[in-house]
Protein backbone atom coordinates (compact mmCIF):
# COMPACT_ATOMS: atom_id res chain seq x y z
CA UNK A 1 0.00 0.00 0.00
CA UNK A 2 1.32 3.44 -1.00
CA UNK A 3 1.01 5.55 2.15
CA UNK A 4 3.66 8.29 1.90
CA UNK A 5 4.68 10.83 -0.71
CA UNK A 6 8.20 9.46 -0.33
CA UNK A 7 7.12 5.94 -1.33
CA UNK A 8 8.70 4.60 -4.50
CA UNK A 9 8.29 1.93 -7.10
CA UNK A 10 11.37 -0.15 -7.87
CA UNK A 11 12.25 -0.29 -11.57
CA UNK A 12 13.49 -3.57 -13.03
CA UNK A 13 17.10 -2.43 -12.68
CA UNK A 14 16.65 -1.72 -8.96
CA UNK A 15 16.34 2.08 -9.19
CA UNK A 16 13.73 3.63 -6.89
CA UNK A 17 11.29 6.03 -8.64
CA UNK A 18 8.73 8.13 -6.71
CA UNK A 19 5.08 7.30 -7.36
CA UNK A 20 4.14 10.98 -7.53
CA UNK A 21 5.92 13.69 -9.49
CA UNK A 22 5.39 17.17 -10.88
CA UNK A 23 4.92 17.52 -14.64
CA UNK A 24 6.05 20.81 -16.21
CA UNK A 25 4.63 20.59 -19.74
CA UNK A 26 3.85 24.12 -21.01
CA UNK A 27 5.26 25.71 -17.85
CA UNK A 28 7.23 28.79 -18.88
CA UNK A 29 10.99 28.81 -18.56
CA UNK A 30 12.28 31.18 -15.92
CA UNK A 31 10.48 32.25 -12.77
CA UNK A 32 7.29 30.27 -13.43
CA UNK A 33 8.95 26.87 -13.66
CA UNK A 34 11.49 27.67 -10.92
CA UNK A 35 8.67 28.55 -8.53
CA UNK A 36 6.58 25.51 -9.50
CA UNK A 37 9.52 23.18 -8.84
CA UNK A 38 10.29 24.96 -5.58
CA UNK A 39 6.67 24.64 -4.44
CA UNK A 40 6.55 20.94 -5.31
CA UNK A 41 9.75 20.16 -3.45
CA UNK A 42 8.57 22.22 -0.49
CA UNK A 43 5.42 20.09 -0.28
CA UNK A 44 7.25 16.78 -0.37
CA UNK A 45 7.50 15.93 -4.07
CA UNK A 46 10.76 14.27 -4.99
CA UNK A 47 10.25 13.77 -8.74
CA UNK A 48 10.18 16.34 -11.56
CA UNK A 49 9.34 15.44 -15.17
CA UNK A 50 10.49 17.70 -18.02
CA UNK A 51 11.58 17.31 -21.66
CA UNK A 52 13.73 19.12 -24.19
CA UNK A 53 10.51 20.02 -26.04
CA UNK A 54 9.22 21.94 -23.01
CA UNK A 55 12.16 24.37 -23.18
CA UNK A 56 12.28 24.69 -19.40
CA UNK A 57 15.05 22.28 -18.40
CA UNK A 58 17.20 25.18 -17.21
CA UNK A 59 14.51 26.39 -14.81
CA UNK A 60 13.90 22.86 -13.54
CA UNK A 61 17.56 22.48 -12.71
CA UNK A 62 17.65 25.90 -11.07
CA UNK A 63 14.60 25.08 -8.95
CA UNK A 64 16.18 21.84 -7.76
CA UNK A 65 19.52 23.46 -6.98
CA UNK A 66 17.95 26.36 -5.08
CA UNK A 67 15.62 24.11 -3.07
CA UNK A 68 18.27 23.16 -0.55
CA UNK A 69 17.30 19.52 -0.97
CA UNK A 70 20.09 17.05 -1.63
CA UNK A 71 20.25 16.35 -5.36
CA UNK A 72 20.36 12.61 -4.63
CA UNK A 73 16.86 12.86 -3.15
CA UNK A 74 15.27 14.32 -6.31
CA UNK A 75 14.37 12.13 -9.30
CA UNK A 76 14.70 14.10 -12.57
CA UNK A 77 13.28 12.88 -15.88
CA UNK A 78 13.77 14.44 -19.30
CA UNK A 79 13.17 13.26 -22.85
CA UNK A 80 14.75 13.32 -26.31
CA UNK A 81 12.53 15.06 -28.85
CA UNK A 82 11.55 13.57 -32.21
CA UNK A 83 13.80 15.77 -34.37
CA UNK A 84 16.79 14.75 -32.23
CA UNK A 85 16.28 11.01 -32.65
CA UNK A 86 18.91 8.72 -34.16
CA UNK A 87 22.13 7.49 -32.56
CA UNK A 88 24.47 10.47 -32.83
CA UNK A 89 21.77 13.13 -32.52
CA UNK A 90 20.42 11.50 -29.36
CA UNK A 91 23.86 11.57 -27.74
CA UNK A 92 24.17 15.27 -28.57
CA UNK A 93 20.64 16.00 -27.36
CA UNK A 94 21.36 14.27 -24.07
CA UNK A 95 24.46 16.40 -23.51
CA UNK A 96 22.45 19.55 -24.21
CA UNK A 97 19.70 18.53 -21.77
CA UNK A 98 22.24 17.67 -19.10
CA UNK A 99 24.00 21.01 -19.63
CA UNK A 100 20.74 22.91 -19.18
CA UNK A 101 19.65 20.91 -16.14
CA UNK A 102 23.11 21.22 -14.57
CA UNK A 103 22.27 18.60 -11.95
CA UNK A 104 24.82 15.87 -12.60
CA UNK A 105 23.80 12.40 -13.82
CA UNK A 106 20.19 12.12 -14.95
CA UNK A 107 17.74 9.80 -13.22
CA UNK A 108 15.56 8.85 -16.19
CA UNK A 109 15.90 9.56 -19.92
CA UNK A 110 12.97 8.78 -22.22
CA UNK A 111 12.29 8.58 -25.95
CA UNK A 112 9.45 11.10 -26.27
CA UNK A 113 7.60 9.45 -29.20
CA UNK A 114 8.15 6.28 -31.27
CA UNK A 115 9.44 7.91 -34.46
CA UNK A 116 9.27 5.25 -37.14
CA UNK A 117 12.64 4.26 -38.54
CA UNK A 118 14.52 6.10 -35.79
CA UNK A 119 13.57 4.85 -32.34
CA UNK A 120 15.72 1.71 -32.52
CA UNK A 121 18.88 3.76 -33.13
CA UNK A 122 17.76 6.25 -30.51
CA UNK A 123 17.44 3.39 -28.05
CA UNK A 124 20.89 2.11 -28.94
CA UNK A 125 22.30 5.50 -27.95
CA UNK A 126 20.30 5.42 -24.72
CA UNK A 127 21.67 1.97 -23.89
CA UNK A 128 25.15 3.46 -24.23
CA UNK A 129 24.27 6.39 -21.95
CA UNK A 130 22.87 3.98 -19.38
CA UNK A 131 25.84 1.62 -19.50
CA UNK A 132 28.22 4.56 -19.11
CA UNK A 133 26.36 5.63 -15.97
CA UNK A 134 25.24 8.96 -17.41
CA UNK A 135 21.61 8.18 -16.59
CA UNK A 136 20.34 5.85 -13.88
CA UNK A 137 17.44 4.54 -15.97
CA UNK A 138 16.13 4.69 -19.54
CA UNK A 139 12.66 4.29 -20.93
CA UNK A 140 10.14 5.35 -23.52
CA UNK A 141 7.05 7.49 -23.80
CA UNK A 142 3.92 6.98 -25.91
CA UNK A 143 4.91 3.45 -26.96
CA UNK A 144 2.14 1.00 -27.78
CA UNK A 145 2.54 -2.75 -27.36
CA UNK A 146 3.83 -3.31 -30.89
CA UNK A 147 6.44 -0.56 -30.44
CA UNK A 148 7.62 -2.17 -27.22
CA UNK A 149 7.79 -5.63 -28.76
CA UNK A 150 9.81 -4.32 -31.69
CA UNK A 151 12.20 -2.41 -29.46
CA UNK A 152 12.70 -5.33 -27.11
CA UNK A 153 13.37 -7.68 -30.02
CA UNK A 154 16.18 -5.43 -31.29
CA UNK A 155 17.80 -4.28 -28.06
CA UNK A 156 19.92 -5.52 -25.18
CA UNK A 157 18.20 -3.55 -22.42
CA UNK A 158 14.47 -3.52 -21.80
CA UNK A 159 12.81 -0.12 -21.15
CA UNK A 160 12.36 0.55 -17.46
CA UNK A 161 9.45 2.98 -17.89
CA UNK A 162 6.72 3.68 -20.45
CA UNK A 163 5.10 7.10 -19.96
CA UNK A 164 1.74 7.34 -21.74
CA UNK A 165 -1.53 9.24 -21.70
CA UNK A 166 -3.55 7.57 -18.97
CA UNK A 167 -6.70 8.71 -17.19
CA UNK A 168 -10.22 7.35 -16.48
CA UNK A 169 -11.29 7.95 -20.10
CA UNK A 170 -8.20 6.12 -21.42
CA UNK A 171 -7.25 3.21 -19.17
CA UNK A 172 -5.13 1.35 -21.75
CA UNK A 173 -5.82 -1.95 -20.01
CA UNK A 174 -3.98 -4.19 -22.50
CA UNK A 175 -0.91 -1.94 -22.53
CA UNK A 176 -0.93 -1.81 -18.75
CA UNK A 177 -1.08 -5.61 -18.56
CA UNK A 178 1.75 -5.99 -21.10
CA UNK A 179 3.98 -3.57 -19.22
CA UNK A 180 3.27 -5.24 -15.91
CA UNK A 181 4.05 -8.69 -17.34
CA UNK A 182 7.34 -7.37 -18.74
CA UNK A 183 8.32 -5.40 -15.61
CA UNK A 184 8.06 -2.04 -17.40
CA UNK A 185 6.71 0.66 -15.08
CA UNK A 186 3.74 2.49 -16.58
CA UNK A 187 3.59 6.23 -15.93
CA UNK A 188 0.63 8.55 -16.60
CA UNK A 189 0.91 11.87 -18.37
CA UNK A 190 -2.20 14.07 -18.43
CA UNK A 191 -3.65 12.02 -15.54
CA UNK A 192 -6.40 14.60 -15.00
CA UNK A 193 -7.32 14.70 -18.72
CA UNK A 194 -6.50 18.43 -18.74
CA UNK A 195 -9.28 19.06 -16.26
CA UNK A 196 -12.06 17.62 -18.39
CA UNK A 197 -13.18 15.06 -15.80
CA UNK A 198 -13.19 17.17 -12.67
CA UNK A 199 -16.95 17.72 -12.70
CA UNK A 200 -17.92 14.15 -13.64
CA UNK A 201 -20.73 12.88 -11.43
CA UNK A 202 -19.05 9.57 -10.58
CA UNK A 203 -15.84 11.28 -9.50
CA UNK A 204 -17.57 14.09 -7.61
CA UNK A 205 -19.72 11.56 -5.74
CA UNK A 206 -16.70 9.45 -4.72
CA UNK A 207 -14.84 12.63 -3.79
CA UNK A 208 -17.64 13.67 -1.40
CA UNK A 209 -17.50 10.27 0.32
CA UNK A 210 -13.79 10.66 1.06
CA UNK A 211 -13.76 14.39 1.69
CA UNK A 212 -11.43 14.85 -1.28
CA UNK A 213 -11.47 16.58 -4.68
CA UNK A 214 -12.14 14.74 -7.97
CA UNK A 215 -8.49 15.39 -8.91
CA UNK A 216 -7.30 13.67 -5.73
CA UNK A 217 -9.61 10.73 -6.43
CA UNK A 218 -8.14 10.29 -9.93
CA UNK A 219 -4.56 10.49 -8.67
CA UNK A 220 -5.29 7.96 -5.91
CA UNK A 221 -6.87 5.69 -8.56
CA UNK A 222 -3.59 5.90 -10.49
CA UNK A 223 -1.55 4.84 -7.48
CA UNK A 224 -3.84 1.94 -6.62
CA UNK A 225 -3.42 0.68 -10.18
CA UNK A 226 0.36 0.78 -9.74
CA UNK A 227 0.74 3.75 -12.10
CA UNK A 228 3.32 6.47 -11.50
CA UNK A 229 1.55 9.82 -11.95
CA UNK A 230 2.83 13.33 -12.74
CA UNK A 231 0.04 15.95 -12.51
CA UNK A 232 0.99 19.41 -13.78
CA UNK A 233 0.22 22.71 -12.08
CA UNK A 234 1.90 26.05 -11.51
CA UNK A 235 -0.35 27.01 -8.60
CA UNK A 236 1.05 26.15 -5.18
CA UNK A 237 -2.38 25.37 -3.71
CA UNK A 238 -3.06 22.80 -6.41
CA UNK A 239 0.45 21.37 -6.24
CA UNK A 240 -0.09 20.89 -2.51
CA UNK A 241 -3.59 19.43 -2.99
CA UNK A 242 -2.39 16.97 -5.63
CA UNK A 243 -0.02 15.53 -3.04
CA UNK A 244 -2.75 15.06 -0.43
CA UNK A 245 -3.63 11.56 -1.63
CA UNK A 246 -1.84 9.32 0.84
CA UNK A 247 -4.29 9.27 3.74
CA UNK A 248 -7.19 7.36 2.17
CA UNK A 249 -7.92 4.35 -0.02
CA UNK A 250 -10.53 3.72 -2.70
CA UNK A 251 -12.64 0.60 -2.35
CA UNK A 252 -12.62 -2.05 -5.06
CA UNK A 253 -16.15 -0.98 -5.99
CA UNK A 254 -15.01 2.62 -6.38
CA UNK A 255 -12.01 1.53 -8.46
CA UNK A 256 -14.34 -0.42 -10.75
CA UNK A 257 -16.71 2.54 -11.11
CA UNK A 258 -13.81 4.73 -12.22
CA UNK A 259 -12.47 2.01 -14.53
CA UNK A 260 -15.89 1.93 -16.20
CA UNK A 261 -15.47 5.55 -17.32
CA UNK A 262 -13.04 4.33 -19.99
CA UNK A 263 -14.01 5.35 -23.54
CA UNK A 264 -10.63 5.02 -25.25
CA UNK A 265 -10.68 8.82 -25.50
CA UNK A 266 -7.45 10.80 -25.95
CA UNK A 267 -6.62 14.46 -25.39
CA UNK A 268 -3.19 13.99 -26.97
CA UNK A 269 -1.94 12.43 -30.19
CA UNK A 270 -2.29 8.76 -31.09
CA UNK A 271 1.14 7.07 -30.97
CA UNK A 272 0.22 5.23 -34.18
CA UNK A 273 -0.78 8.42 -36.01
CA UNK A 274 1.18 11.51 -35.01
CA UNK A 275 2.82 14.06 -37.29
CA UNK A 276 5.56 15.84 -35.37
TrEMBL record:
Gene3D superfamilies: NADP-dependent oxidoreductase domain. PROSITE patterns: ALDOKETO_REDUCTASE_1 (PS00798), ALDOKETO_REDUCTASE_2 (PS00062). Residues 26-262 form the NADP-dependent oxidoreductase domain. SUPFAM superfamilies: NAD(P)-linked oxidoreductase (SSF51430). CDD domains: AKR_AKR5G1-3. The keyword Nuclease does not apply. The keyword NADP applies. InterPro entries: AKR, AKR5G, Aldo/ket_reductase_CS, NAD(P)_OxRdtase_dom_sf, NADP_OxRdtase_dom. Keywords: NADP, Oxidoreductase. PANTHER family: 2,5-DIKETO-D-GLUCONIC ACID REDUCTASE (PTHR43827), NADP-DEPENDENT OXIDOREDUCTASE DOMAIN-CONTAINING PROTEIN (PTHR43827:SF3). Belongs to the aldo/keto reductase family. This is Aldo/keto reductase. The lineage of its organism: Bacteria, Bacillati, Bacillota, Bacilli, Bacillales.
Amino acid sequence: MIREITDTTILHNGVHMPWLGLGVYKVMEGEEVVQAVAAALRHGYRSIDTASLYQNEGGVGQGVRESGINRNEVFITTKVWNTDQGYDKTLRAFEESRRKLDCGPLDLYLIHWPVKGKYRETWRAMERLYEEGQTRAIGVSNFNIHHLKDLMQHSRIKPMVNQVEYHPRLTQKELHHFCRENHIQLEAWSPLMRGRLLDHEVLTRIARIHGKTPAQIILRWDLQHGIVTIPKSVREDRIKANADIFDFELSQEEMTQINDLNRGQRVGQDPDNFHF
